[in-house]
Design brief:
- With about 170 residues, the protein is α+β, with helices and mostly antiparallel strands.
- The chain has one domain: Beta Polymerase, domain 2 (2-Layer Sandwich).
- It is about 40% helix and about 25% strand.
- It is built from five helices and eight strands, in the order H-E-H-E-H-E-E-E-E-E-E-H-H.
- The strands form two sheets. Strands 1, 2, 3, 4, 5 and 6 form a six-stranded mixed sheet that branches. Strands 7-8 form a two-stranded antiparallel ribbon.
- The radius of gyration is 17 Å and the shape is globular.
- The C terminus is likely disordered.
Length: about 170
């Protein structure tokens, strides 16, 4: 847990149990918070939750008092979803129901791929595996996403690196 800043931990400690209870379809964290949970050296300004459209509706009802009004986002040409942003102590939470990416061949559903559970002080937090997080970040194509993909690659390389010994 030491790699997770206290503010982010406070937000995750509040929302993760509620996500497990109120989401009926598989959900996961994506973005910088997901990369951080797997140990990547990135900063996370918010928590991105990928859900189904129906589960996004349920969370919008559950967290109605925390909902922020959001005007047009700068990346609306790249992403579309059943979106809402919520205020939580520590970090804002962005819920993206049925997230789609505008790719070369039009709008495509964002598929998180293989999920793994990141442990956080007794909580099981579903996130895409390292390889699928890299794939997602690269598909998003923004500069910040490429930096996050590189941080995950560095993590992956260090995790599987074998020590080199000299025979001298």
């Amino acid at each position: 847990m030491s790699h997770v800043p206290p503010a982010l931990y406070a937000t995750l400690a509040e929302i993760v149990p509620e996500l497990h209870v109120h989401c009926t379809a598989p959900w996961c964290l994506i973005g910088s918070a997901a990369a951080l949970l797997l140990g990547a050296e990135v900063s996370a300004a918010d928590v991105d939750v990928l859900t189904s459209r129906a589960d996004a509706d349920a969370l919008m009802t559950l967290w109605v008092e925390r909902r922020e009004s959001v005007s047009a986002r700068t990346d609306d040409r790249l992403f579309r979803s059943h979106f809402a942003r919520f205020r939580f102590p520590g970090a804002p939470v962005e819920v993206m129901g049925a997230l789609e990416l505008n790719a070369d061949d039009g709008w495509q559903a964002v598929q998180p791929g293989r999920l793994q559970l990141a442990g956080l002080n007794g909580m099981a937090v579903p996130v895409p595996c390292v390889e699928d997080q890299i794939r997602l970040f690269e598909s998003f194509g923004r500069e910040k996403d490429m930096r996050r993909a590189a941080a995950l690659r560095a993590l992956n390389a260090s995790t599987f690196a074998l020590p080199v010994f000299s025979s001298h």
